[in-house]
Design goal:
The chain is of the alpha+beta class. It has a single domain, classed as RutC-like (60s Ribosomal Protein L30, Chain: A, 2-Layer Sandwich). It contains two helices and six strands. The strands form two sheets. A four-stranded mixed beta sheet has the order 3-6-4-5, with helices on one face. The chain has a two-stranded antiparallel ribbon with strand order 1-2. Strand 4, helix 2 and strand 5 form a beta-alpha-beta unit. Helix 1 runs parallel beside helix 2. The longest helix has 18 residues. It comes from Gordonia caeni.
Amino acid sequence: MSGAPVQRLQASGLHDGGFAHVSVVAPGSTVFTAGISPLDKNGELVLPGDALAQTRRCLEALAEVLAEAGAGPETVARLTVYVVTDSNDVLGQVWRIVDDWFAVTPAAIVLGVQVLPYPGQVVEVEAVAAARL
């Protein structure tokens, strides 16, 4: 595998959902993020209970974390988004924000969960990415 640090592939026998089914990271440094919470620079939760605003803040914070590691949105190989909801509509709205944020959406999933660490927190993201070498 030469060229880009992440190669995204579709399995030809599976439904094309608009995202890669698998990402292969070139040899070198792999970046694993911690869970990224929707906190501002002062550690305050952004818009408690607002899944869409919190998704945007988590993605902004993810970009900062990736940059610090020598990576970027284009090098994300795998993304997991946790949302406190049992609503398919909310999960779909969060997915659209995630999908729009990436030029090429990586292998990703948006999961409904019961609770996250901070009171009022309804979104958290974590990613695996390739560092630019």
